[in-house]
Amino acid sequence: MLLHTAFEMGGIAVGMRLYAGSLRRASGGSMAQGAAFAVVMGCVLGAILGSKAAVWLQQPAAFVAGLRSPEILWNGQSIVGALIGGWLGVEIAKRIAGIRKSTGDAFVLPLIAGIAIGRIGCFLAGLHDDTFGLPSDLPWAIDFGDGIRRHPTQLYDIAFVLAFGALLHRWRRELAQIPGLRFKWFLAGYLLWRLAIDLLKPVPVAYPLGLSGLQWLALMFLAGYLPVVVA
User: Fold this and answer.
1) Closest to 115 (Cα-Cα) out of 71, 67, 80
2) Pick from 59, 96, 90: which is nearest to 75 by CA?
3) Which residues contact residue 44 at a Cβ distance below 8 angstroms, ignoring those fewer than 6 apart?
4) 142 by DSSP, 3-state: which?
C-alpha cells in the first residue's frame, strides 16, 4: 500500500512539474500567480471532490459505512471522477476569475504522465486495489496472489494513455489551430476508453444495463461533452 501511495504521489508530482514547465514555455508565467493559480486551485479542488464522489457512486455501501465512520469516506480514488471534477473545477475557477482563454492543452501531457505513473502503483498493489480485471486465460493474464489469473487492466490503461498521447503529439500542429482541442480530444478519448475497458473489470454494484457507476458517470458526461468536441 505504501508503494501504491508513493507512485500516486510521484505521478502527481511529475504532472505538476510538467504543467509548470508548460506555463513557463507558453507565457513565462508561474502556476503560483494570477490566473494560473486560480486554474490550478480549481483543478485540484475539483479533482479531489470529483474523485471521491465517483468512488461513492461506484461503491455506495462504502459511502453509507462512511457516514458511521467518517475516515472511510476518504478511502479510494477514481481517475474518471478526478478528470470530470477537475474539468468542472477549472471551468468554475475561470468564470470566477474572469478568464476567457482556453487553458486545457497545458494539462494533457501532465495528465498522461500522471495516469501512467499512478497506474504502476495500482498494478503493484494487486488485490489491494480495485483496478484489476476479470479472470482470463490469455497468455499475459496475471495472478495477483490468489491463484486466479486476471486481465492486467492497469497495464492496459498505461498502454492506452501512452499510445493516445503519442497520437495527440503527432497531430499537435493540426490540433493547435483550435485552442483547447487537444485537451477535449484527450478527455473524451480517455473516457470512451474507460467505458470499454471497464467491461473487463468486476462491477461492485450493477446499475442499469449492468454497467458500473463509473461507466454511467463517464457515459452521462460524454453525452453532453462530445457535441462540444466535434463542434
Assistant:
1) 80
2) 59
3) 86, 89
4) strand
pLDDT tens figures, 33-43: 667 788 888 99
> Left, alpha or beta for 145 (phi > 0: left; psi -120 to 50: alpha)?
left
Concatenated DSSP letters for 169-221? HHTHHHHTTSTTHHHHHHHHHHHHHHHHHGGGS--SS--GGG--HHHHHHHHH
Cell of 148: 486466479
- Measured in residues, the chain has a length of 231
Q: Which of 40, 118, 213, 58 is nearest to 221 (CA)?
A: 213
162 contacts 149 by C-beta, under 8 angstroms: no
| The three cell numbers locating residue 209 | 444495463
- Of 126, 106, 118, the closest CA to residue 29 belongs to 106
Q: Which three cell numbers stand for residue 60?
A: 455506495
Query: For 124-181, what is each residue's pLDDT tens digit?
Result: 988 888 889 999 999 999 999 899 999 999 999 999 999 999 999 999 899 989 989 9
